[in-house]
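agent> Task received from the user: take the single chain below, predict its 3D structure, and emit structure tokens. No templates, no multimer pairing.
agent> Plan: (1) validate residues, (2) run structure prediction, (3) serialize to tokens, (4) report one or two observations.
agent> Step 1 OK, no nonstandard residues flagged.
tool_call: predict_structure(input=
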Amino acid sequence: MRSSKLILAAAGIMLVADCTIPMAGAAPSRATPPSAGKYGATESRIFDLINAQRQHQGLRPLVYNPQLDRMAKIQAENMARFQKMAHVIPDANLPTLGDRAKYVGYVYGRIAENVALGYPNAETVVEGWMNSSGHRRNILDRDVVETGIGIARSSAGGLYYCQVFGRQLSSL
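)
tool_result: status=success, residues=172
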């Protein structure tokens, strides 16, 4: 029990430092995201643009995962609610990426998250992420195979974006 708390603490440090938690991996679920919800078309466009970036670099496209999608939507909604762009929001019910993964039942070998605020559309948010070394690294990580995307608007009008990348844990 004590060693698992130590591992979780170390993972939390890596999460804050680089937005990723590396380990081992498994197989993807579905190829394309559904276009449901208020921001479905923009989320689908981000999905397509991210995969175009990956393919341009000779990487396999990511596939849609409903658990990662739920995680991204939770974080986008948290950021909008608290009007804070961050990977960790201490006042939220699910403050960390690890908390959100556990909540949706995503047993990961690798997981990462990109967040953004204030971009007017899919093209500009993806361009912003690609111009940021940490976000770009997450997008072009060959060890992630699936993704989910969430967008939420705060009461002040700001658009908050979240994309979660992952690879499920295949075995222990």
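agent> Step 4: summary for the user.
Residues 2-18 form the longest helix (17 residues).
agent> Done.
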